[in-house]
Design a protein that fits this description.
138 residues; alpha+beta
């Protein structure tokens, strides 16, 4: 388990269009494709938050605290990659860069961003874009 904190992006694959109830945001219709959720893990647990997201996605943890838990915990959704950069809060900057097709309000309830979830045509494209973007932060 990696505990040093920073910014991370989870890359998801959603093979079929799916309607998912996302907590207070209500039901959202997610087209098939790749999705990138960007968050920060700067507290005492650091990147252990990523392990929690993985447990939710695997059905090993039922409590949903964040919007991403509803997407990641859906049975059709698969985490295909995780990128991270330690020691800095680049969450909003990364989310804006990936925001070509944002899901309004998703994961951005504590900032002024439109969204922290971006949609891509497929997970391969999403993963490549995230990898290229994170090279700028290393």
């Amino acid at each position: 388990m990696i505990t040093a904190g920073g910014t991370y992006t989870l890359v998801f694959s959603l093979p079929e269009p799916t309607a998912i109830a996302v907590g207070a945001l209500g039901e959202h219709r997610f087209p098939a494709g790749g999705y990138c959720y960007t968050g920060s893990a700067l507290g005492s647990g650091g990147f252990s938050r990523i392990d929690r997201h993985r447990r939710v996605a695997a059905g090993e943890h039922d409590v949903k605290h964040w919007h991403v838990d509803y997407l990641g915990g859906h049975p059709e959704t698969v985490i295909v990659a995780v990128e991270r950069v330690g020691g800095r809060d680049a969450e909003c900057a990364v989310a804006r860069e990936l925001g070509d097709d944002p899901v309004p309000g998703f994961g951005a309830s504590d900032c002024h961003c439109e969204s922290h979830l971006a949609r891509f045509t497929d997970a391969v494209t999403a993963r490549a874009c995230v990898g290229e973007l994170y090279e700028q932060f290393r």
